[in-house]
Amino acid sequence: MRIRNIFSLSSQLVAAVLFGSVLTGVPSGQALAQGKDPEMAIKKFDRNGDGKVSRKEWKRDPATFEEIDTDGDGFLTVEEFKARFSSGEKSAKKESRRKKSGGDGKDGGNIISKDDLAPVTFKGFKRKPDSRAQQIELGLLETNLIPVYPDDVYCPKIDHIFGEPWRGPVPNRWHSGGDIPSSWDDPIHAMADGVVIAKFDSGFRGIQVILQHAPEDTGLDVWVYTLYSHFRTMPEVAIGQRVRMGEYLGPNGKTGVPGKKREPHLHLTIMFAATPKYALLVNEKGSLMIPLDGYFAGPLALMRRKMPIDTHSMRALREQERRVIIAYKKESGAIVPPDAKIIWPFTCR
Ligand SMILES: [Zn+2]
Question: What pLDDT is stored for residue 31 in this prediction?
Fold first, then answer.
């Protein structure tokens, strides 16, 4: 197995926990709140004088940006700063997030710096053309899994699979997820219980939501991330919010899709790691979430609903083990099979 023994990284794990607690103590929110003047906060960051703060102008940690940007439009306004300052500063915010996320309070403490990422992780997830070796190490190649969709109901199906050469306009890129075409505004649902850790509308892939799923959410022994992109409009779920499997996230669309020919579709990327730590990178091209010592997984590998899910193990499966039966939600709300903890992101009807 090429995956670097994620269960025997105890020393790295300890280091991650130690560093994580130091790094996430960045006091940007508190420093801002001390000023308590929304106008001043805007002035401090607003370079182009449009009266609001873009992601590019923001010089503090991305998580704080996402927290303040409650409507998720990618800009911080006077109203949003006001709401931030009047909410009783960070402790109240944390408390409300803890309530929303089901009580463990851990979701707010998992963000690390990109400097904590191993070079292979950073290069592989950035997916620059010269990083194909790293991408392969992280599992970005075809899994050879075969989906078995139900035959009594219709499920929107993957047409552009994970790990094959990307069909978009840039050469030497490999598809980091599976594309599932469906009609405009078809509801996209959370594939498992989890927490919303990011949502943004910028750069490539348009409007995106990222969920983090704890091992107890999925029944898998790893932390899983499901990334949904190309929503037609910004989903109303909030950062830090706990969502349930099958819960509505937002409408299908094609924001960020290059070229006019491609129909609306969900681009679905799956990642996983041994710990819940992750970095959020923000630049003018968009936002990128990278799990600490994380890997890509194919959507069908996740739909196996059992370990392992890493690509190199999938490619080593015998032929009869490669068929993956898709679990799903019916329009009635019934889950098939009823004990599934991970389901298809579109309803089957
Ligand atoms: Zn895609």
Answer: 36
Separation of CA 17 and ligand 1 centre (Å): 33
Domains for the chain: give ranges and CATH numbers. 25-109 (1.10.238), 115-336 (2.70.70.10)
Rounded-to-5 percentages of helix, strand, coil across the chain:
30, 25, 50
H/E run at residue 294: none
Quote the longest CA-to-CA distance of the chain.
Answer: 64
Ligand 1 center–CA 164 separation, angstroms: 11
Q: Cα(205) to centroid of ligand 1, in Å?
A: 8
- How far, in Å, is the centroid of ligand 1 from the Cα of 177? 6
Amino acid in position 155: C
Lowest mean pLDDT: which of 24-28, 74-78, 112-116, 118-122?
A: 24-28
pLDDT digits (tens, 9 = 90+) for 293-303: 999 999 999 99
Instruction: Calculate how far, in angstroms, residue 267's C-alpha sits from the geometric centre of ligand 1.
Output: 4
274 φ, ψ to 5°?
-80, -20
The pLDDT mean for the chain works out to 83
Pairing status of strand 223-231 against strand 328-329: unpaired
**So what's the pLDDT on residue 296?**
98
- DSSP for 162-202, please give it: TTSBP-SSSSS-B--SEEEE--TTPEEE-SSSEEEEEEEE-
Ligand 1 center–CA 262 separation, angstroms? 10
Task: Give the DSSP per-residue string, 84-137.
Answer: HHHTTHHHHHHHHHHHHTTS--GGGG-EE-GGGS-HHHHHHHHT-GGGHHHHHH
User: What spacing in Å lies between the alpha carbon of 175 and ligand 1's midpoint?
Assistant: 6
Average pLDDT over residues 275-282: 93
Ligand 1 geometric centre to CA of 45 (Å): 34
Residue 10 has pLDDT above 50, yes or no: no
CB 279 within 8 A of CB 116: yes
Q: How far is the CA of 118 from the centre of ligand 1 (A)?
A: 26
pLDDT band, residue 46 (cuts 50/70/90):
confident
The amino acid at 221:
D
Tokens 């990618």 correspond to 74
